[in-house]
Amino acid sequence: MMIDDDVETGNLGTYQERPRTFPNMRSKPYNPLIFRVLKQINVRVLLMLLLLGFGAIFYIGASTSPIIVFVFIVCIISFLFSVYLTKWVLSKDEGPPEMIQISDAIRDGAEGFFRTQYGTISKMAMLLALVILCIYLFRSTTPQQESSGLGRLASAYITVAAFLLGALCSGVAGYVGMWVSVRANVRVSSAARRSAREALQIAVRAGGLSAIVVVGMVVIGIAILYATFYVWLGVDSPGSMEVTDLPLLLVGYGFGASFVALFAQLGGGIFTKAADVGADLVGKVEQGIPEDDPRNPAVIADLVGDNVGDCAARGADLFESIAAEIISAMILGGTMAQRCKIEEQAPSAWVHFALCGLVGIITAYIFVWITKYYTDYKHGPVRALALASTTGHGTNIIAGVSLGLESTALPVLVISVSIVSSFWLGHTAGLVDEAGNPTGGLFGTAVATMGMLSTAAYVLTMDMFGPIADNAGGIVEMSQQPESVREITDVLDAVGNTTKATTKGFAYWVCSTGIFPSV
């Protein structure tokens, strides 16, 4: 009631005199169980375990293919680079105490949400793993499994292990995204007091850290499963499974990633929008106070939602998309290799598939440009919408809905052209089956999707940049920083809204093109 009375009487007072809605002391940060267990291990023992783990990984990689070893090396280098980015971001100052105080409240809320949501996800994942185990124990085996001696029990264990690993990697990727964003936001706010360039650099590098971890976790998880199953099952040895059938054992990994992404997207997205709308209703509509005002406790929930919905959830979403596309491309490639003799039939087919990948890269660039055109304040559509908003709520809604419908036309055309062109390139690659039918069309679309996903790290970096900049603006406003600082964070926030829209469109494009070869 005290807040309501102050608003009605206009007795707002200074920032120090206003009621606080967040704690004054930094609480103990939440760490997942696996991180708490690792912290209890002696450093030397942990290093020995890591060395043994790396040795085992490179051993099974060397026993599989030099390409797998190369993949392991690239993933480890990417993780080391992410460690460097982490140290660089955390070395920046957090600003004055009032900024730290607000940031701590956001961090506590995000970690509390993560603890509740992912605790529920882990329990349901274990339950679903038991269901998958029972289903595979009672299902009939395929002819390929029977010929290789892979029984129902082994197939069930393999699928469950892949499912749990996919869920674990997806959960870790989501946690990393949230962990980075709740620590980078206050540092961006502090840097905005000095220069826009420094604030932009911190936000982009923090987003890049999360993006590299997400992509690296996807690739190394699939590579570990592939190499482990290859060595364990003795693939390509007499009486064993052929290497072209091995990707079929990896579907559980994509299912586990999809399971976590489903809950992360729904839970995080609903929380984000509910907190955003609730904060606006109770603040701007009912009380008539500005956005991100420190007198509105719901602002903290709004800022928490940016982290759990746009960072953790989006990271899990793209993790699932990348994993599913890699596995589907492997399955299509293996099926195509079984039906035709690639080197004898079409030694130059690689040129066609390279062009398919180039189509995917070009399409990704065009898609980013289209999203930027319809969401950036520098271009006509956003300016027209802003002009329509000056005449009232009705024209704002009409113009906004019309603009949203219009913005879907070009992406649909681009997606259609990319699918048809990549299918045609694969279809004309010269690969035919025993009946003489071309077999490379669907694989061409899969290669185009993989070409588009080659830009995933950059696009996800831009997505993580958005909520970090948004949080920074909220921290600046709630800590009553000078107007010049708020102007810098407002510009970053406007750019972040565009980059977040780019990632959403990117994810939908992946889904659209990925469905075609999967069918």
From TrEMBL:
Pfam families: H_PPase. It comes from the Eukaryota. InterPro entries: PPase-energised_H-pump. Keywords: Ion transport, Magnesium, Membrane, Translocase, Transmembrane, Transmembrane helix, Transport. One of its GO terms (molecular function) is diphosphate hydrolysis-driven proton transmembrane transporter activity. GO terms for cellular component: endomembrane system; membrane. It is a multi-pass membrane protein. It is found in: Endomembrane system. Its main location: membrane. It is an enzyme of class 7 (translocase). Its EC number is 7.1.3.1. The chain crosses the membrane at residues 41-61, 67-90, 121-138, 158-182, 202-226, 246-264, 349-370, 382-403, 410-429, 441-460. PANTHER family: K(+)-INSENSITIVE PYROPHOSPHATE-ENERGIZED PROTON PUMP. This is H(+)-exporting diphosphatase. The lineage of its organism: Eukaryota, Viridiplantae, Streptophyta, Embryophyta, Tracheophyta.
